[in-house]
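User: Can you predict the 3D structure of LevC protein? Sequence below.
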Amino acid sequence: MAGQAVGNYTIGRPLVGGLICGLILGDLQLGIACGVAMQLVYIALVTPGGTVSADVRAISYIGIPLAMVAIASQGLNPLGGSAANLAKSVGTLVGTVGTVLYYAVATMNLVWQSFGWKDVHNGKLNKLTAVNFGWPWISHAIFSFLPTMFLTYYGATAVTALRNALPMDGVAMKTLFTVGGMLPCVGIAILLRQIIGRTTDFIPFLVGFTLAASLGLNLVSVTVVSLLFAVIMYEVEMSKGGKQGNSTVPEGPNDDDEEDI
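Assistant: Sure. Here are the predicted structure tokens for LevC protein:
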């Protein structure tokens, strides 16, 4: 509900979630230790175009409390390796459930988007605020807040029961993941509309995918290569602007003007 920058990429991260859960449960050291253990696993997790392999918000606010209770009940050292491994295992279990909840929220938000498109076509642009900041709260309340509250309250048995009730090869899960699998296409299409102005713009856009597929480069390596292309394109554009700014109309044909041309 706090948006992407504050909500998803700050409060929703395990490191911050561990701090908050530690304050709530009265064991700050254990909360931060669980948050650090889970953050190391999902430190490079991004959601390009809506593609989610694990929901770190569920890991932060379902996995960390359950891990804290499990570690405390077994009397493990919060800073020990056994506690960290237990926290990672619980986080992995909950991350799968969180993915289901994430796609459920995204699917329900499509209903609110349809309302927004109708308002755009009818010229009621003042109602778009409710589509962006109002109606999605219902989706989060149903598929984020309530499941988090119940799963945290009833413990790990509720997480296991949910996974058993909704097997990955079941119709409900296949339908949900099929719909959710199409959402990244929408995200990539929106990205393309922002950066593609002509057909040749697809070439630098596909370079990163080509490098990742053919050379096995990770996200950091591809980013470094993209910075090289960005610097080259920047220098080219700046040189064009400098030539246009310094160009003057010649008074008459002479050798110097022909050399400059």
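DSSP finds twelve helices and no strands in the chain. The chain has two domains: 7-179, 180-239.
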